[in-house]
Amino acid sequence: MGRRDAIAAVKAIRNVVGQEAWDSLRGEEVTPGASIKTDEQILAYLRDTAGTNYHPSCTCRMGNGDDAVVNAEGGLHLLGLITSTAAHCLARHPTASL
């Protein structure tokens, strides 16, 4: 991602969250903050604060115990009421950094 893309991403997020549909959910902007307005300010903020993070995956316990997240077939345990497929237990999937 280049500088222009990063600046555009901040502006796009602000545009989405600034929509009327978010009015009842939105508070004051926390990051980068309302005082960060120009492209230069946005880029400086990103340079000072941006980073990467690795998110471990495929680490959930499978089975029927209290600490199991998915059953032996990969179905997600949710209060015993809903079963859904969980990607957390996939044996093969692409890895990525956040």
Provide a descriptive summary of the structure in words.
By secondary structure, the chain is an alpha+beta fold. It folds into two domains: 3-49, no CATH class; 53-98, no CATH class. Helices cover 27% and strands 8% of the residues. The chain is built from two helices and two strands, in the order ααββ. Strands 1-2 form a two-stranded antiparallel sheet. The model has no long low-confidence stretch (mean pLDDT 80). Pfam families: GMC_oxred_C. Residues 4-77 form the Glucose-methanol-choline oxidoreductase C-terminal domain. InterPro entries: FAD/NAD-bd_sf, GMC_OxRtase_C. This is Glucose-methanol-choline oxidoreductase C-terminal domain-containing protein.
Layout of secondary structure:
Blueprint: H1 3-17, H2 39-49, E1 75-78, E2 82-85
Antiparallel strand pairs: 1-2
GO molecular function: oxidoreductase activity, acting on CH-OH group of donors
Protein name: Glucose-methanol-choline oxidoreductase C-terminal domain-containing protein
Organism: Paraburkholderia sacchari
Low-pLDDT regions: none
Overall strand count: 2
| Percent strand | 5-15%
Radius of gyration of CA atoms, rounded to a whole number: 20 Å
Order of helices and strands: HHEE
**Total helical elements:** 2
Judged by helices, strands and strand pairing, the structural class is alpha+beta
> What is the count of distinct domains?
2
Query: Mean of the pLDDT scores?
Result: 80
Main beta sheet = 2 strands, antiparallel
> How are the strands ordered across the major sheet?
1-2
Shape: elongated
Summarize the amount of helix as a percent range: 25-40%
- The first-to-last residue Cα distance is 13 Å
